[in-house]
Amino acid sequence: MEEALCPKIGMEFQSEDKAYNFYNRYGLVVGFSVRKDYLNKDKDGVVTSRRYTCCKEGFKPRYEGDVKPKRTRAETKTGCEAKMGIILNRETMKYQVRDLVIEHNHILHISECAHMMRSQRKVSISQGAQAEIANVAGISLKQSHELMGKEAGGLGNIGYTRDDLKRYLRTKRERGLKYGEAGAMLQYFEEQKLENPSFFHAEQLDCEEQITNIFWADASMLMDYTYFGDVITFDTTYKTNKEYRPLGVFVGFNQFRQLVIFGATLLYDETIESFKWVFGTFVEAVCGRHPKTIFTDQDAAMAAAISAVMPSTYHGLCTFHIRVNFMKHLGNYYKDGSNLPYRFGECMYEIEDENEFIMAWDAMLKEHKLETNEWLCGIYACRKKWAKCFMKGAWTAGMRSTQLSESLNASIKNYLKLDHDLVEFFKHFDRVVDEKRYNELRAEYHSRQKLPMLGLQQTPVLIQAACIYSPCMFVAFQNEYDECTTMVILDQKHTTMHVEYSVSHYDGGRARRLILNPITKDITCSCNLFEQEGILCSHALKVYDMVGTKFIPDQYVTKRWTKKARSGGSVDCKGREISSDPSLSISHRYRLLAPEMVRLATRAAMSEAATKLVSSAMSELSKRVEMLFCGEIDEITQNSASMDLCKGIQVQNAAGHFVTPTGLKKRRGRKTKKVLRSWVDRFHR
Fold first, then answer.
1. Which residues pair with 88 in a beta bridge?
2. Structural element, H or E, at residue 614
3. What's the rounded Cα separation, in Å, for the pair 125 and 660?
4. Would strands 247-253 and 231-237 be described as parallel, antiparallel, or unpaired?
5. Backbone angles phi, psi at 551, to 5 degrees
6. Nearest CA among 180, 199, 177 for reference residue 190
7. Rounded distance between C-alpha atoms, residue 300 and residue 298, angstroms
8. For labelling, which of 20, 247, 495, 653 has a CA lying 20 to 30 Å from the CA of 418?
9. Exposed, middle or buried by CB within 10 Å (0-12, 13-18, 19+), for 174?
10. Percent of the chain at pLDDT above 70?
């Protein structure tokens, strides 16, 4: 060992910390852990003397009780007398070594175990930041520790153990919750709002000023609603947070028929009042624009809230949940070749005439003697929300169920755990949202990278559709166009303003009635495909082909299905234009400046005189930039200071007054490890 690393009597140090660091570095080389022993201070609080000892100094106190403990820890102390004592020299104001013992009475550690010694274990700021990023990304603690070991060339080189990393993250999380979960949640929302002013959040308080229901939507969610919020689904899921609060998500789909999220809520309970608040807050967040259609499951509280808050919105019931309920109440009819499930499915999906539906329903009940079945009577009472013949006038964009929400729920349960606190919950929920948005980005890339497959019939209308529609909608349109080649026109009648056609499949089937305005090219079909899904049906394409219209009229190109579905701006509830990521403008300016700076530095480095010139100019330029930002820096500092006062964040209560929440209202009931599930989950299980 180098002589400079060995402590000696009379050595001096500028500060107490430098003395400790020196002795600790000596302990690392020799193979023992250092412990801070006693210290003395004067009346001014200045440390006058201190002693550092070996971690094995002293002895473990003996247990003196009558009953011996069941578990005892192994002995670690051996009474080692190795130490280094320092005293403050008042003349030089330096610390001097006065007491020193080098010898140890125990076996010293080998160098390979040095990172396990307590005084040597420390998680640095950079390592802690990397661990936090890994934690937010969903990487387990074990995997994160192993990854850092691989990067450092071995676990012994990172300077800490897995338990140290675990304690670091736990301490970081506890500090973030110093004002409680409610305060941490409000602080998280305020941070999001500082990053993007269009971020929307709202909390409902009860009479005790405790937070019950929570709603939030970021800027991208509000922008997505502007473009694709005509049809939405709302569903709740469990097993997402340790408070067992139902998580409700407003979901729709984009031009690629992929899932997009419009907002989310954490509910205290699933009552009519809670749903009224959630739907009312959602409408407020999207500037009062009600969706045309909303699909939910068969929840009476949801139905009552929707009719009260969004009376102009068509409320549809999820056909998937109806079929599951049918299996639950009438599952025995799946046996012995009964045709009841097929008759019920025919009423739901195939029958298009209301009178025909009523006749088929009555015949089904009479055949199976189910006239008094309570569930069938209840589902028949709300037939206008699920039967195809009663939904012909509703805009559904091809949606009939909440399967989008169900698929999102499956993804959420893969990311979220019951032991996550609220802030962790929001961060991991953002991971789910980011994954869905990245899927849309991939679809956008493939739509620009891959050309549509036109097949053999490269007609003008197909070429036009390939240029304007997204890939999935072009496939749907192409299928309708291929189907129109099998259609025949049975009859046509001319009136003063319109021409009426009767179109059917060449081998029979239901005849469709179409009315065409020859001047404006407006057309309506009795199948109502365009009115429901926004795409021309094969019957209308047949008529257009016969009259010589070789392109899709502009009024029948639905923007939400086109490649330019996201064109146009959107504003938030405060009237501000929404920007999904304000930092993108910063990145754009950086990409403009960085290449110029690099080229200038590369050129100036060729000459010493040029280097001095650029260096002096850059120094002056830096001062001017700092002066320019002086006002903005003061404003940011003020905002950060106000954010730190988390207890000052206020929420509007039911009376319209701004108050400070007292906390997050806890759900009453059993606190067990058993997961609360909806009736659908319980039935499947």
1. 95
2. helix 608-628
3. 34
4. antiparallel
5. -130, 160
6. 199
7. 6
8. 653
9. exposed
10. 87
The answer to whether the beta carbons of residues 394 and 293 sit under 8 Å apart is: yes
* Distance from C-alpha of 74 to C-alpha of 427, rounded to nearest angstrom: 41
**Strand runs labelled E in 4-93:** 12-13, 34-41, 47-54, 83-89
Dist CA 465 CA 479 (whole Å): 12
**What is the per-residue pLDDT across 425-482, written as a single tens digit (0 to 9) for each?**
888 888 889 889 999 999 999 998 888 888 767 899 999 999 999 999 999 999 999 9
Least confident of 394-408, 604-618, 628-642: 628-642
- At residue 176, does pLDDT exceed 80? no
φ and ψ of 86, to 5 deg: -125, 150
State pLDDT tens for residues 328-370. 888 787 777 788 889 999 999 999 999 999 999 999 999 989 9
CB-based contacts of 451, cutoff 8 Å, min separation 6: 466
Give the pLDDT mean for 384-392. 92
Q: What does the alpha-carbon distance between residue 630 and residue 634 come to, in Å, rounded to a whole number?
A: 6
Strands 314-317 and 293-296: parallel
Find the angle CA(641)-CA(201)-CA(633) to the nearest 5 degrees.
25
Q: Which of 288, 569, 542, 240 is nearest to 418 (CA)?
A: 240
Residue 641 pLDDT greater than 50, yes or no: no
Q: What is the DSSP letter of 342?
A: H
Cβ–Cβ under 8 Å, residues 271 and 236: no
Whether the per-residue pLDDT at 685 is higher than 60: the answer is no
pLDDT (tens digit per residue) in 225-264: 999 999 999 988 765 555 668 889 999 999 999 999 999 9
* 74 vs 245: CA distance, rounded Å: 44
Residue 243: its pLDDT value, please?
60
Please compute, for residue 282, the number of CA atoms within 13 A of its CA located in the half-sphere on the CB side: 31
3-state secondary structure of 50: strand
Crossing angle of helices 125-136 and 141-152, in 10° steps, is 140
Q: How far from each other are the two terminal CA atoms of the chain, in whole angstroms?
A: 67
Q: Which residue has the tokens 């015949």?
A: 363
Q: Are strands 523-525 and 94-101 parallel, antiparallel or unpaired?
A: unpaired
- At residue 378, the pLDDT reads 92
> Six-digit token pair at 476?
């749907």
Chain centroid offset of residue 565 CA: 23
C-alpha span between 3 and 299 (Å, rounded): 80
Strands ordered across the beta sheet of 12-13? 12-13, 94-101, 83-89, 47-54, 34-41
* Residue-level pLDDT at 655: 66
Alpha helices in 538-661 (DSSP H): 538-547, 583-604, 608-628, 630-644
Average pLDDT of the residues of the chain: 84
Cβ atoms 355, 438 nearer than 8 A: no
Beta strands 651-652 and 523-525, pairing class: unpaired
